[in-house]
Amino acid sequence: MDEGRNSTKLDIEGVRQQSAANEALRAEGELKESYKKICEPDVNRNGLDGSSKSDHQQQAATDDGHGMPRENGTGAKDGEEERMLNGGGADAAIVRSDAEPTEKDRLAQKEVEVKFISSKNGDARIDMELENQQTFTGMTKEELMKYANDPFWVRLRWLLFVLFWALWVAMLLGSFYIIYDAPKCAAPVPLSWWQEGPLMELTGGERYDEQLQQATRYGAKGVIYELPADQTYFVDSPAVQEQLKKLVADFGSKNIKVAVDITPNFVTKNDSLFQTALGQKDGPEYRAFVWRDMSKQPPASWLSVVDDKSAWETASNGMYVLSQFGPDRYDLNFEAQSARDRLKNTLKQLLELGVRGVRLSNAKHLLINADGEEETIMNQVDVDKATTVNQYGFYTHRETTYRDGLGSLFHELSTFVHEQTDGEAFLSVTEYLHRLEVFTVNGTLPIDAPLYGNIEFDLRDAAAGPNATRKLRKDIESAYRTVSNNQPTSDKPWLQLRYNNTSLNASEWAVFHFLLPGVPVFPVDALANVSQESVELLEKFRTTPSFQHGLFNVYNDANATAIAYTRLKSGNPGYFVVLNLAQGEQETKVDFSAIEGISSELTVVLTSQNYAVPNVGVKSKVPADAVPLSPMSALIATYVPTK
């Protein structure tokens, strides 16, 4: 009895202990993990039917400890355990309420690609790679070849092929077109032979062999022969032709051109044109002269240019005929085409003989108002007080000089000369043109190397006072500006630079003039005192780009003691030419450092005969702010521009 009681007590105690252990285990499991209630589909998938089981069955499963999945996976089916590791989707997510996510949790939230890689020895290696860490390797050759003959891709490849070569050819043709059609930098126009200069004026007589040697010594590009005025329209005579042919042949043997000065204003009484005109009353030859009827007194103020007598003569036909240039010389009226044709015929004969330049004398007298009246008196401010009413200088001569139409006449003549020689010959004048605008046509001056400006006259009066250099600078700038404004933009303002008894000796004149934009013109013996070495250097300087195509600017120093100019072409050394017009015996230092672009130091390359500064010679360095000069001397230096 006691023994049975004790057995029952032990069973009750054992059940109690087991129940306490189960409760403790349950409590521990609830602290570690919490589970979402399994939805109905999951219950069905695991073979459990919550609606069909009785409470007793559910309690039994719980009491046995098999109804609750454990941490080691016992009590959970394979599918459910995998679902818990992978996060269980949206309905079976594991929620850790009391700790940070573990690596297991983080892996469970990523998609992992598992690769089984076998080796040669039979072992297998498992490679787990996250999807977002995989690199794109592209398609394999076999995969690409599936599309090789696909019509879409075939057409696309041909389209891209054609487009590539079409664009390539278009770019090639476009580059050729750009090169062909793009604006090109015009090459500098080379100077003609007469622009290169200098030109030497031959003296009369038969000393041409000696003058040929002088011309060769001075490096002259041409010589000028003055044809006697009365022979202008007798060029076709054997004597004149023989003379000109000899000149052209002799000087041509030394590659020196020949130019001729002619006087086209009149013909002599024995000229065939005048003799024919005497027998006419209104023919072309008759209109080539200026006539007045004897019934009316001609203008008394029309005076002769040479002797202040009346400019009218009585002709054998009972008419007055104009004769401004002396007895038996009858003015041609170049308003008439017959007179122009006669002059052009003479020019043609000269050019055919080998002459390559013509200068016309008395250019301002070439046009005359055939019906003009009395001349007006010169302005009292301008007239010489010593002149009288019977002198040529007393009148303005507006009826016989600087007439409108001279530009058209010279344009016709210069065009004729250029066409006859393909631009090799030139047409110019022998006197200064004081009204340059009259000789222009359509804003262009049709005269090659005109004589214009007051440079020569200023140098004659260089010792007149302290303002001589200022006036000289002003006149040089004015002359080149005026000529430049009356020439095409492609042409250079090229002047004749004539030597004619200036106050400078030949050496100073040559050093100062040879690099001015123009052609020096001087008598054959004018440079007799200039060394051949100096002349050769000047000729060398004239062949450089800075002279032939460079810019030209004129300056005075701070005290206006000296005048200087520069010649500069980009990329080449510049030339600095300075002339001191101050007289006396003391050396002068002039400051030209204010010239834009000039370097602080100049290299002397040539000095004039009067230059006598100690320790300064060729290749010497002189400062730009203190250039040493002797009285009435000139200097040429080179410099490297700073800009």
UniProtKB/TrEMBL annotation:
Compositionally biased tracts (Basic and acidic residues): 1-14, 25-43
GO molecular function, one term: alpha-1,4-glucosidase activity
Catalyzed reactions: Hydrolysis of terminal, non-reducing (1->4)-linked alpha-D-glucose residues with release of alpha-D-glucose
Domain Glycosyl hydrolase family 13 catalytic: from-to ranges: 208-548
Region (Disordered) location: 1-84
Signal peptide (residue range): none
Keyword terms, alphabetized: Membrane, Signal, Transmembrane, Transmembrane helix
UniProt record, GO biological process: carbohydrate metabolic process; L-alanine import across plasma membrane; L-leucine import across plasma membrane; phenylalanine transport
InterPro entries membership: GH, GH13_cat_dom, Glyco_hydro_b, O16G_dom_2, SLC3A2, SLC3A2_N
Transmembrane segments: 158-180
GO-annotated cellular components: apical plasma membrane; basolateral plasma membrane
Pfam families xrefs: Alpha-amylase (PF00128), SLC3A2_N (PF16028)
Gene3D superfamilies given in the database record: Glycosidases, Golgi alpha-mannosidase II, Oligo-1,6-glucosidase, Domain 2
EC number assigned by the record: 3.2.1.20
Name of the molecule in the record: alpha-glucosidase
Native source species: Anopheles sinensis (Mosquito)
Lineage: Eukaryota, Metazoa, Ecdysozoa, Arthropoda, Hexapoda
